[in-house]
Write a structure and sequence with these properties.
2 domains; Cytosolic purine 5'-nucleotidase-like isoform X2; 230 residues; glutamine synthetase activity; mainly alpha; three-stranded antiparallel sheet; 10 helices; hydrolase; two-stranded parallel ribbon; 5'-nucleotidase activity; HAD-SF_hydro_IG_5-nucl
């Protein structure tokens, strides 16, 4: 058979192959077999389970089964969502600030590049700056972007941790992939040089020795959130 049928024979879930059905608990086979075995069809059947969308679509569209979805209790999720409204607003604010600062940084960097080609900057303010002023302002903006990035990471963590089961699963994924996350939050492209992928040392190198305190800061932030989860 293309879809084998198994009878569940023990409370521990031990199964054995079978070819005919009687009263009991079964796993496998096909929807067609279910209809034939029960001699009922279409909306006479109520399919209850934690289905994925494709299963629901298949049964409702093609077989006309009724479906009931079993899902987690949402009351705590809703309360946590309301509770995290403030941190989520902070995340949006920080993202907007970072985008503005990033645009200014890119304008100054482009102005410096155009100047080396003997071309004027695209803005009057950048045109009136000399090379030293451009470089100093770029350094200042880079520092601001780094601080916004660290604040944003922390705000995102605190916005997520209150989401009970959803938050726990999110944090589990963050911890599992933390070295990669640290690597891809590096502020400069040249930070990726000679990084060993999927390693703590690679993540540390990506932040750079001059930013080792920020690695520790991020790690402590993670510990704080995990402590609140527990």
């Amino acid at each position: 058979m293309s879809h084998p049928l198994y009878e569940v024979v023990t409370g521990e879930g031990l199964m054995r192959p079978c070819f005919k059905t009687r009263t009991g608990l079964y796993s496998g086979e096909s929807a067609q077999m279910v209809e034939n075995s029960l001699n009922i069809h279409g909306d006479e059947i109520l399919y209850v389970g934690d289905h994925i969308y494709t299963d629901v679509s298949q049964f409702k569209v093609h077989l006309r089964w009724r479906t009931a979805l079993i899902c987690r209790e949402l009351e705590e999720e809703y309360k946590a969502l309301i509770h995290s409204r403030g941190p989520r607003a902070t995340v949006v604010e920080l993202i907007n600030q970072k985008e503005v600062v990033g645009d200014l940084f890119n304008q100054l960097r482009l102005a410096l590049q155009r100047r080396t080609k003997g071309r004027p900057a695209q803005t009057l303010a950048a045109t009136n700056m000399d090379d030293r002023e451009l470089t100093e302002n770029m350094q200042k903006l880079l520092i601001v972007m780094q601080r916004l990035q660290y604040s944003l990471l922390l705000a995102q963590l605190f916005a997520q941790h209150a989401m009970s089961k959803v938050g726990e699963e999110f944090m589990a994924g963050v911890l599992d992939h933390l070295p990669s996350i640290l690597a891809f939050t590096a502020p400069l492209p040249n930070s990726y040089d000679r990084i060993q992928p999927n390693t703590w040392s690679g993540a540390y190198q990506c932040w750079g020795k001059e930013r080792e305190a920020h690695c520790i800061f991020y790690y402590l932030a993670m510990c704080i959130v995990i402590g609140k989860l527990n």
